[in-house]
Amino acid sequence: MPVPIPRQRAIPAVESGQAQAASPRGGSAEESAKDASPTGRTPDTAGNTTDKVENNTAHTNLTLLLIEDDPAGSMIVPDMLDQAGKPIRVRTARNLTEAGRLLTDDVHCILLDLALPAPGHSDSEDELAVLRHVLELAPRHAVLALTASGDAERGAEAVRVGAQDYLFRDELDGRLLSRAIRYAVERKRSESAERRLAEGRLRAQENRRLERGLLPTPLLEGSTLRFAARYRPGRSRALLGGDFYDVVRTPDGTVHAMIGDVCGHGPDEAALGVELRIAWRALTLAGLCGDQLLGTLQQVLEHERADDEIFATLCTVDIAPDGRRAGLCLAGHPSPLLARPGKPARLLPYDNNGPALGLLPGARWPRMQVELGAEWSLMLYTDGLIEGHIGQGRERLGQDGMTEMVRRQFAEGLRGEQLLRAAVNEVRELNGGELTDDVAVLLLDRVP
After folding, report:
1. For residue 312, which of 215, 233, 364, 242 has the smallest C-alpha distance?
2. Least enclosed by CB within 10 Å: which of 111, 119, 284, 359?
3. Which residues are CB-contacts of 343 (< 8 A; sequence separation ≥ 6)?
4. Helix (H, G, I), strand (E, B), or coil: what is residue 247?
5. Cβ(304)–Cβ(275) under 8 Å?
6. pTM > 0.70
7. d(CA 23, CA 33)
8. pLDDT tens, residue by residue, 203-262
9. In this structure, are residues 63 and 48 in contact, taking their beta carbons and an 8 Å threshold?
10. pLDDT tens digit sequence for 76-125
């Protein structure tokens, strides 16, 4: 790609490491280093000035680390300018040990002489051993390989191994090297960005596979009921929260639905929610329901929780095969919302609400019979949907506010996924932004 040609100003810029590098203008390396420093200060023995250098090429000079076995004799790095006309600073190292000391975060590029011997290797073993060692030592830095003019094949092989580019030792000049450094730095940044993007895509694919395994797939084959659900974890970038839900149909035609909420918002609570959901499905398919099922789930919770103070709320509904009535059990959980044509949406009775799971040993959870009718929509939800704030004050939406909201949306003709999407979006808007609590909501519809 085309690279702008820098302005030609001869400003020496050399930082010395352990070696006494010669100055292009003559004079000591110490004097050259002092001239090169933006503050006029002499670098310390590690090649750093006393001021902290930001790792930002937009605000500071580019820094080159030259690794060459005799920088004072065989090669003098010419004066170089970056794209902004600032001098490119140079640190010199005679071997990889010195390079390791000088390789700090403010180094942007490494210029490596391929003729430098690698520790523990002979030339016959691997002629690019020193390059491989440097790439392992500095995986985040741009690397330029330096080779003889008659050894282009070795330079090309260095690029295949991992260097950003190669240069011929006897053809160096300030313009060429300055441009090569800038190109190498930008190419390394591009490679790093592409790698992070690829890693992000892989993580997203893994998360999707994990999500398919942890979030439930409703088992409703043979049922005429329609199902929809929305799930939003409260933790930033989290896959799952402490909320959980599931729906299954047993061989007798009964449809069982459940929604629950483990107290807390961390990964341990999310894992416990998954365990409770799987346990509920297994127990339901085994024929348990009502008080017996919830008592067994409480035993699971007590054995799996990390702390005795952790509890979970739960709502279970078992809908009869004819779809006109249902049994309801509440364990410290908000009551479901029932909406029917021609009638205002209302909450199902919650007078016999039992305690949350994990609070009282030997607790009981009464099962209530409720009439649904011929055509209805039943919404189960967690408290994340009703505990969002309304505007700037401390007032919360609450169950009454949610009921009025669903009544209006139901009257507007919203059903299924559209109804849940509108409800969750409106709750977020009323809250003035993202909700801090997990939100799970599911909807079952019966249309004759």
Report:
1. 242
2. 119
3. none
4. strand
5. yes
6. no
7. 9
8. 877 766 666 667 788 999 999 999 999 998 876 656 678 899 999 999 999 999 999 999
9. no
10. 567 777 777 778 888 888 888 888 889 888 898 999 999 888 776 555 56
